[in-house]
Amino acid sequence: MAPIPALFTLPIDPRGSIFCTQPSQRVYLLTFDSPPDNRLTPAFCTALVLALDILDRRYPKGLVVTTSAIPKFYSNGLDYESAVKSKTFFSDVLYPLWRRFLTYPMPTVALINGHAFAGGLMTAMMHDYRFMNPHRGYVCLNEVEFGAPLMPPMSSIFRQKLPNPNTYRTMVLEAKRFNALEALQEGIVDGLGMVPEVLRFVEEMKLVDKAKSGVYGRLKKEMWRETVGYLEDHVGSEKRIKEEMETEKGRADEEEQRVAEWERSKGRKGPKL
Description:
Distance between the termini: 64 Å
Strand order of the largest sheet: 1-2-3-4-6-8-10
Structural class: alpha/beta
Largest sheet: 7 strands, mixed
Number of strands: 10
């Protein structure tokens, strides 16, 4: 079969790209290729937002599928050290991308062809539907392993979309890696397969025509109001987090004081930590 010509291509600095094809009528496939593992860098996020804007403003309404040209990875998440050093990455780069997906005026499908870890999985969760390669890859929230807290929208999207809270507990506190079948059983993904299976699902669900009435994005904004609110009110969220950290420090000081008083009353010394 001859390759499907690209509708457009966008660069991702320094050596990546996003190319858009149309494997079926009004089904737009955005394939990103940002070696080595599609990290959610500012360049990556900005290019992906632009691709969504182009489809929204210049093409007939239909459906958007995202996937990766790198077989091993859908996305390996944030470049965490760079992200936390930037004062504007979350508010001006990552959160606008997630909000765009979450309220996009067309149906969206994340085709998870390989690993989707941490922020990569969160990005997939911002889509309406998720399909996963049955033969390759894991989905995982591994923040507990590298010492990163979950920001409010990172947590709320799973609370809102996962059918079983125990699944989220396992994801967050155990950093379990779910293979495709496990992800399907737990409701993390909606189906297994690659592009042919996604196209069949889209046809069976008649998803291409869902955006015609013009309210699709508004319906999603109301459905996911909690997460949308966190994405929009990042200043308020950051203020609350700082207040919570100060409160936790005060509690820790009180706990230390109680333990120290107990040790003194017993004539004991605590173990060296």
